[in-house]
Amino acid sequence: MELKDVKTILNRIKVNYPTFINDDFTRSEWYNELKDYSLNDVMEKLEQHFRSEQYGNSIPKVYFLTKYLTKEKDKENIKTYTVACSKCGEHVTSDKIEEHYDRCGSVEFLTINSKKYLSKSLNRQKLMEADEKTFKDYYYKTVEEILPLIDDNPMKKKCFENILHRHYTGESKYTVKELLSW
Question: What pLDDT score was predicted for residue 74?
């Protein structure tokens, strides 16, 4: 990363946090810490910070932005491994396992509930291979379809309501305590 990139980062922080001091000393300190990292990686972490409910109200610290980032020179030394998914047993590269595991869990959820409430068998492979938008559209459409059919489990019904409410509003309708009080 170059000094001009660090200035861009600091200017973005200053716009979002007017009390942030963006002077020569700050630029020098931040450059010394950021020079070995990719601008895109740091900008992504900065975006995450801005949008964080927990940290978004605080001025970002340079060391938190670089935490868990890989320096550019070390990226070529990163090795990927094949890992078996604990849900389905499929072998996936280590850099894709988290994404696979999330999708795998969502597909399992849809498959079980579609069979139970809609008497419908789903094509697991097709769901696993669908692009993100197509999958999410199908996922929420299916949850909407199942919700009115749940009459055997009040907690499950509230969980489904929570899924949809969070999808449409970004907030949960029920707390974990409210869900577990049944």
Answer: 86
Give the three-class secondary structure for 175.
coil
Contact 135, 127 (CB under 8 A): yes
pLDDT at 160: 95
CA neighbor of 160 nearest in space, from 103, 108, 109, 100 = 109
DSSP state, 71?
Answer: P
Q: In angstroms, what CA-CA distances link 144 with 26, 84, 97, 124, 151?
A: 51, 32, 28, 19, 14
Q: In angstroms, what CA-CA distances link 74 with 31, 70, 71, 78?
A: 18, 6, 5, 7
Which DSSP letter does residue 173 get? S
Whole-number pLDDT of residue 182: 60
150, 130 contact by CB (below 8 A) = no
Q: Which residues of the chain have pLDDT under 50?
A: none
Q: Is residue 90 part of a domain?
A: no
DSSP 106-161: HHHHHHHHHHHHH-----HHHHHHS-HHHHHHHHHHHHHHHGGG--S-HHHHHHHH
Domain of residue 147: give its range. Answer: 95-180
Domain for residue 175, yes or no? yes
CATH number assigned to the domain comprising residue 61: 1.10.8
0.70 cut: is pTM over it?
no
Q: Any residues with CB less than 8 A from the CB of 43 and at least 6 apart, and which?
A: 9
